[in-house]
Amino acid sequence: MRSRLLAAGTAAAALLWGSAAPAQTADEARAFVDKAEADLAATSEYLNKASWVRATFITDDTQWLEAKANGEWTEKTSAYAQQARASWRR
Questions:
Q1: Rounded to whole angstroms, how far apart are CA atoms 68 and 25?
Q2: What is the C-alpha to C-alpha distance for residues 67 and 82, in angstroms, rounded to an integer?
Q3: What is the largest CA-CA distance in the chain?
Q4: CA 75 – CA 90 distance, rounded (Å)
Q5: Highest taxon of the source (predicted)?
Q6: 9 falls in which pLDDT band (50, 70, 90)?
Q7: What percent of the chain has pLDDT over 90?
Q8: What is the mean pLDDT of residues 10-15?
Q9: Dihedral through CA 39, CA 1, CA 82, CA 87, nearest 10?
Q10: DSSP string of the chain?
Q11: Do 2 and 77 touch, CB atoms closer than 8 A?
């Protein structure tokens, strides 16, 4: 779900920022989105499990684990968004 939102947000951002000529072909864009979705799906599963463990066993360690997983999710989504934006600005 989150990866689909990322793809939609990336497409919307590309339309807003625009460029004189598309920097990528449709196949390249699909490959990028497929790679991002696969990577983010694995990270999302990790984050969801860490969140469940923290909600079930509330300790300093499980809170740290959830925060670490959330940080990784944020870094990856930001990196993919920046890559998408850069590819459309070429």
A1: 36
A2: 22
A3: 53
A4: 23
A5: Bacteria
A6: low
A7: 60
A8: 58
A9: 90
A10: -HHHHHHHHHHHHHHHH--SS-SS-HHHHHHHHHHHHHHHHHHHHHHHHHHHHHHHS-SHHHHHHHHHHHHHHHHHHHHHHHHHHHHHH-
A11: yes
C-alpha 3/C-alpha 39 separation (Å) is 9
Q: Which two tokens stand for residue 27?
A: 């196949």
The predicted model gives 42-70 an average pLDDT of: 97
Quick one: tokens of 66?
């959830």
- Which residues does 71 contact at the CB level (< 8 Å), separation at least 6? none
Task: Give the pLDDT of residue 10.
Answer: 63
Q: Please identify which residue in the block is written with the tokens 């460029």.
A: 19
Q: Which amino acid is at 66?
A: E
Write down the residue that tokens 């699909």 correspond to: 30
Task: Give dist(CA 17, CA 13) in Å, integer.
Answer: 6
How does residue 1 score in pLDDT terms, banded at 50, 70 and 90? low
